[in-house]
Amino acid sequence: MKSFVKFALTTSAALVFAGNVFAADVKANIKGMAFNPGTITIFVGDTITFTNRDGAPHTATASDGSFTTPTLRKGKSSTITFSKKGTFAFFCKIHPGMKGEVVVK
Ligand SMILES: [Cu+2]
Questions:
Q1: How many other CB atoms sit within 10 Å of the CB of residue 55?
Q2: Residue 36 falls within a domain, yes or no?
Q3: The pTM is what?
Q4: What is the average pLDDT across 74-79?
Q5: How many angstroms is it from 104 CA to the middle of ligand 1?
Q6: 26 Cα: distance to centroid of ligand 1 (angstroms)
Q7: Distances (CA, A) of 31 to 2, 3, 8, 45, 60
Q8: Which of 8, 14, 68, 92 is deepest in the core (most CB within 10 A)?
Q9: How many CB atoms lie within 10 A of CB 60?
């Protein structure tokens, strides 16, 4: 009986992890006029926290308009939740040459 209980607990813990119940928060820096990392791969339900490490203000804004941070001054952060699968290109509204990509699986 004892061993059955142990088995049941182990199995249910494994199922919780398989279901990705715990959404991850991925940290992304904006530094040296670039997004780092430039390509961020996450899973549906995860969040990305963008932090500006530059003196210049920046945003992270989706090319398709599906998300944007506010204008982030030095040291400021913004967290975005991704609830749809897909590949989303983004850029900085203030410096449009700054580009990145979020891949949501
Ligand atoms: Cu910028």
A1: 7
A2: yes
A3: 0.80
A4: 98
A5: 23
A6: 20
A7: 54, 53, 47, 26, 12
A8: 92
A9: 24
